Amino acid sequence: MHFDNHTERKRDATSDEDLCSETREQKIDGGYMMDQLVETIQSTRCIFMDNGTRNVEEPTTDFTKIDVVPLQNRTSLDTEEPSEIYVSLSFYVALDGKGEIQANVDYDNHLKSIRGYTNELGYFDVVFDRHPNLNYNYLETYTPCLHLIKEAIQHYSSAAKFRNADVPLNLIVSQVSGSGAFSMEASFESASYTSRKQSLSGTVFTDHLGTHIQTFHRKFEATFHLNEKGFSKEEQTFAKAVFSNLIGGMGYFYGASVIRTELYDSPLGYWYTPLYTAVPSSSFSPRASLWDEGFHQLVISKWNASITLDALAHWLDLMNVDGWIPCEQILGSEALARVPREFIVQHTSNANPPSFMMTVDSLLDKNAIPEAFLRRNASNIFELNPKTLTSGLDDYPRASHPSVEEYHLDLRCWMSLIAQVLTKMAKTLAHEDEIRLESWKKQLLDFSLLNKFHWSDQLKYYTDVGLNAVDVSLVRPPRRPEDAPNQPESHKVRKVLSSVSSKPVHVSHPGYTLWTPYGIRSLSKQDALYMKRNTEHDTPYWRGQIWVNMNYMVVRALHHYAYLAQSGPNSARCKQIYTELRSNLIQNIFRQYQSSCFVWENYDDSTGKGQGAHPFTGWKSLVFLLAVGTKMNYIL
Question: What is the mean pLDDT of the chain?
Answer without folding.
Answer: 78
